[in-house]
Each structure stands twice: as C-alpha cells, then as structure tokens.
Hints:
Helices cover 34% and strands 21% of the residues. With 341 residues, it is α/β, with parallel strands linked by helices.
Amino acid sequence: MTVSVLVxxxxxxxxxxxxxxxRRDPEIEVxxxxxxxxxxxxxxxxxxxxxITLDVEMPxxxxxxxxxxxxxxxPMPVVMVxxxxxxxxxxxxxxxxxxxxxxxxxxxxxxxAMEAFADLATKVKVAARSRVRAGGGAxxxxxxxxxxxxxxxxxxxxxxxxxxxxxxxxxxxxxxxADCPATVVTQHMPATFTPSFAARLDxxxxxxxxxxxxxxPLARGCVYIAPGGEAHLEVAGVTPRCRLVRSDTVSGHRxxxxxxxxxxxxxxxxxxxxxxTGMGRDGxxxxxxxxxxxxxxxxxxxxxxxxxxxxxxxxxxxxxxxxLPLSRLPAAILDLCAEPA
Length: 341
C-alpha cells in the first residue's frame, strides 16, 4: 500500500529536504507541498493525502491553529516537523495533545537532514495506519480524589508508551490524586522533549511529576519520566531508586520500556505494570516478567490506541491481565495500587 503525503512548511529548503527524505521510501508518494495553512487547506481538498507533515511556525496561521482546525473539521494523520529547542518541544507537545500522531525534529547544529529525518518515512507510514480522533485530547473517567484515596506506601507503578503516548499519559497522570503511587514512566521521545513533557504533566496533575534523575528515591505522590534518548531508566535497591543506565538500545529503543519493566519485576514489593499505545513490541517481554513476578498488569485496548502495537504484542504474549479503554485506565490503575482497606 502506497501512503500519499502532503508536505507543509514555509521554507522552500525544508520542503525540499522533507520531500527528498520521504521519496527515498518506495512505499511513500509525495503528492505535493504547501507553504502555509491557506495553501495547505486547498491542497488537502484537491489531493486528499493520507498524511500531512506540518511545520509549526508559518505565515498567515501557525501550525497549532491549523492543526486544531484539521482535527475539528477534517481529522487526519499529522506528523509535526519541529525545531529541537525548548520552545519547539513545548509547541510540539501541545500539537501531540491536539491529536498529531508523531513528531520529528528539524536539522540543527551538528545534525544533518539525513540524520534528522532518518525515521520520518517510518513515522509517516505508522501515522497512515493510526486511529485519529476528532478534536484529540484524552478524557479520563473521574478517579479517586486525594480526600478519598491513599496509595500503598510500598507499591511501584510502571508505565510504558510510545506513539500516541503523550495524549494517553496526559489523560492518566492528570487524573492522579496527590497521593498517587510511586510511578515510573518510559515514553519514547527525543531528549529535548522530556523536560517539557514532565513539566506539562506536573502542571496538569495533583501529583508531582519530574524528569527522573540518577539516584532519585521513589516516593508516593511522585511520577518520574525517563529522560529521552541517552539512557535507560531502571528501578533498583531495597529502598527503590531511579537508576539511569547508559547502554545500547533494547527492543530498538533507548530508553526502553522492556528495561524499565524488567527492573521493576526484580523488586520484592507490590507492583503494577501498564502498557499504552505505541508501535512495535517494546515492553511486551518486560510486562510478562512483571506479571510472572506477581504484578497486576493492564493494557490499553485497541479502540482507544493511536497505534495498537505494543499493547497487542503484550496481550498476545499473555502479559496483560486486562485490556481497558483509556478512559477507564486511571481508576483501574489506582484500584490496583491502593492501600488495603
């Protein structure tokens, strides 16, 4: 199946680089390009592409405004192309919350177009198979409040996600009370994105959310996000602490969900594992290890996933006890982690 793409960027040079990167894949057809949202709107009507790549900073209307209109009026798969700066990361995260499927960084200092767009074609093809929902945004069923909930003091919650995970994690973590279980999260994303992502989750949640640092002790009421790109996040110790391990990719990723889950499985304490939307199989074997060690395990169901890859692999392996829609996951997670009555 050939995936058709419209490239939207105000820079002729960038449009050329993105087009060249996509045309190297024989399964992708670039139908055309547009220099701003007004031109893009007409091109979408005329060409009906499967996917669009979208810049953020453009004349006449910025990329976020245009994305919001797309998701409200004509939902379709969008891959954002953003500068890898703090400002670019924050805008890209906002785009992912609005419903963009994925994002790639533009070439920058010391980064060639070949390097920056190495996985662009793959992300575009995944986007073409993804489930795009009108309006974007994750809506969770109300979970217990701090006044009615207390997490078990020694319980560890581990969550893994990839494509579509920004929206899913926002839906889950924003529903957590201040006294949530000690939570560790691996989400596949670039290194420049995770500080902004942790800060965004912290603002949205009653819990304290931060990027994980080496040696940080796990504490109830805190959520620790694996730093992107350079190290794996593990949990280790009699009194569990975060450990950042600089080693090769595992299951094709660094940080890897499998690495996190296996480290939690080795802890001698109550634990829960959750696997969310994402492409591939990262986390399936690790979640199985957690279940075999006595953990409660949950997976996001197919209908609510942007990409039903990681949860499917874990479910077929027997690692998932229950599959639930995203809207039901926060309450189910907190039930598994609650202090016994």
